[in-house]
User: Which sequence fits this backbone?
């Protein structure tokens, strides 16, 4: 994918084929038989109206994941006192929008309250606290979640178990105990093991498969493996390796999902890095497309503005498919193309006018069936866009880049 300047876009606009890719990422994913394309979100961002407008865009997002507000420190800050306010805000948003909710997470070594990390535990008292936490949280969200990430990141890079309070005190039995407790509280929700660097073959992926077998060996239900997919531009595993690794999990009778996809780069972002990032996104999404047992893809927030990357990895960022100003990057098109499969090259009557900041773009396509009006902040044009091209009264369809015009 070449990052076209505005002027070269204008020259090209009349002759580019219209890739009839559907109206958005979730629409395309569902058309392929996937359950969803979705994004993580977090409570502080929900005060940003422009952010929420796109989060609400169910053409792109058929699923959301609360980034933090269902974690242990958020839900049980004091022993046996449960706080669901923030998690409920996101669960209710998903319900109101008709978006699936991936619930995240129940047992992790991180983001634990001090009563857990500083407590004095025996095996029996820690198992009791673990079961009480899982039972209360899963029961509260019963019927609202598509899936729970039951255990998160139990493994070291070499495939041994991570040293954690859970492993040190309970041993590997904490895994089947956690899954059995979650299954008892909500028999219908999908139960996942979720980790990073298990998207490609190697010791850690083998160990993740062994966790599935361990849980099954206890006669306990596990439904899925979540592949976080926190990747680096230019060094993501190949599509075929990702697909064959997914196959090692699905061969055990579980489904898989990409649960936290983002692909970071060393800043500053350049056209070459953005083009490589688009290819990298396309390969990971494409591996899921190829894998029948891969049910969906979740990105770890959709805009660079609220990405966790810059504060975690010094000097890195620009990991999401939308930039910090909410403009679509080439990665968006990479994902959409991977989800589109059979893009049909129909000739189009696209016309584009305008230039840098104040100009407008109007796009009409011979395959467009849309007659709607886009609201303030809504999308009103861009390559492959088949939605409304007219803005509500008082707003102007403003060219942002080749992939995105917005009603401002
Ligand atoms: C987002 O969706 C929720 C639920 O459907 C709705 O209440 C809210 O007004 C929407 N917000 C924006 C900014 O579109
Ligand atoms: C802790 O107790 C559980 C049963 O609740 C058992 O399965 C596990 O092996 C015990 N762990 C240790 C280290 O004794």
Assistant:
């Amino acid at each position: 994918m070449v990052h076209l300047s505005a002027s070269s876009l204008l020259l090209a606009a009349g002759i580019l084929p219209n890739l009839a890719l559907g109206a958005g990422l979730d629409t395309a994913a569902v058309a392929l038989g996937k359950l969803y394309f979705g994004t993580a979100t977090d409570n502080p961002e929900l005060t940003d109206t422009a952010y929420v407008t796109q989060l609400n865009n169910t053409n792109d997002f058929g699923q959301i994941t609360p980034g933090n507000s269902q974690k242990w420190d958020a839900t049980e800050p004091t022993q046996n006192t449960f706080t669901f306010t923030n998690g409920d805000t996101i669960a209710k948003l998903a319900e109101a929008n008709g978006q699936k909710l991936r619930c995240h997470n129940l047992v992790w070594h991180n983001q634990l309250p001090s009563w857990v990390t500083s407590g004095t535990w025996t095996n029996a008292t820690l198992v009791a606290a673990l079961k009480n936490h899982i039972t209360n949280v899963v029961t509260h969200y019963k019927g609202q979640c598509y899936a729970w990430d039951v255990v998160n990141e139990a493994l070291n890079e070499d495939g041994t178990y991570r040293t954690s309070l859970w492993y040190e005190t309970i041993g590997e039995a904490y895994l089947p105990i956690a899954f059995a407790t979650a299954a008892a509280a909500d028999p219908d929700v999908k139960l996942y093991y979720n980790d990073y660097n298990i998207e490609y073959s190697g010791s850690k992926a083998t160990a993740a498969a062994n966790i599935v077998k361990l849980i099954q060996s206890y006669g306990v239900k596990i439904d899925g493996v979540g592949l976080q997919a926190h990747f680096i531009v230019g060094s993501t595993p190949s599509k075929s390796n990702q697909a064959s690794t997914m196959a090692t999990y699905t061969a055990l009778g579980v489904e898989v999902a990409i649960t936290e996809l983002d692909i970071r780069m060393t800043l500053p972002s350049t056209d070459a890095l953005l083009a490589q990032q688009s290819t990298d996104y396309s390969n990971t999404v494409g591996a899921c497309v190829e894998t029948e047992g891969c049910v969906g893809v979740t990105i770890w927030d959709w805009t660079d503005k609220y990405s966790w990357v810059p504060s975690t990895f010094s000097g890195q960022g620009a990991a999401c498919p939308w930039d910090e100003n909410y403009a679509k990057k080439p990665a968006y098109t990479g994902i959409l193309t991977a989800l589109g499969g059979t893009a049909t090259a129909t000739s189009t009557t696209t016309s584009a006018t305008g230039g840098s900041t104040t100009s407008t773009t109007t796009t009409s396509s011979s395959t467009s069936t849309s007659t709607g009006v886009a609201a303030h902040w809504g999308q009103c044009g861009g390559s492959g866009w088949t939605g409304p091209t007219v803005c509500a009264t008082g707003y102007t369809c403003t060219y942002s880049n080749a992939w995105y015009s917005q009603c401002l």
